[in-house]
Amino acid sequence: MKGIDDLKRNLKLGDKVQLLIIANVVAFVLLYGLSIVFSAVYHSVFPYVAFVADGVATLGRFWTFVSYSFVHANIWHLLLNMIMLFFVSNLFFTFFSSRQFLFVYFIGAIGGSMLYYLCSFFFQMGYGLVGASAAIMAPLIALATFAPTMEVRLALLGRIKMIYIAGAIIVIDLFQLSSSNVGGHIAHLGGALVGFGYMVLLKKGIDLAKPKKRTAKEKSTFKKVYVNKNGDKENNKESNKENNKAAAVQKQIDVILDKISRSGYESLSKDEKDFLFRQGNK
Questions:
Q1: How far is CA 261 from CA 21, 162, 181, 227, 231, in A?
Q2: d(CA 30, CA 34)
Q3: Which among 117-126, 153-162, 189-198 has the top mean pLDDT?
């Protein structure tokens, strides 16, 4: 039953990720087919789906700051990125919601193309930027920032902490800045910076992925002319209760995160996993 419950939880959270993978596969099949059947048309379309740094003209194709993440150079490029997307998303859902994942994923894509664009004024970047790597880097680095001691089991290597995995990937990208694919590695670093920045703000209580709620003051166009003091006292009591409840929930989350850091996610009980699942989807 434990395995079935985990599968149900992952399927519910993974719906959006499955749609992302399907969208990437469909985009690849369409573009690959176009490149074979109508090569000239493909080369004409390419600058409007991939990210091509071309000075001010690039800003006129603003959608390509994101659309490039759905374009892949070949089947192996697509396969590797989709495996990484599936792997990283499942780890990310240990603590966070699908809404947060999608937000970090897409701003990671934008961060990658933005850094690529800025660097194109100083370096030779190649013809264009394609692939979901920068978008995937954002939640990966965000997770490593949030839970650096979380252990992941990797084939042949055993259990490795997230901080070491993220660190190794960044070091590789830095060393590859002198390679022919300098633009791709710069985009990876752009996605990594975005993921790190998002998590730093989240730790300070600022969740950029959370829709801003309008306050009662913003919703109302009328001025308050009478104050019920007894009502204010009741409101204060309710507010204190809510604050105490939030503090208790946060304390429980901290205890569970410490347990994950020490023994890994699989050491959690069903109740603890369900608790994290509920909190992540609020």
A1: 30, 10, 36, 49, 45
A2: 6
A3: 189-198
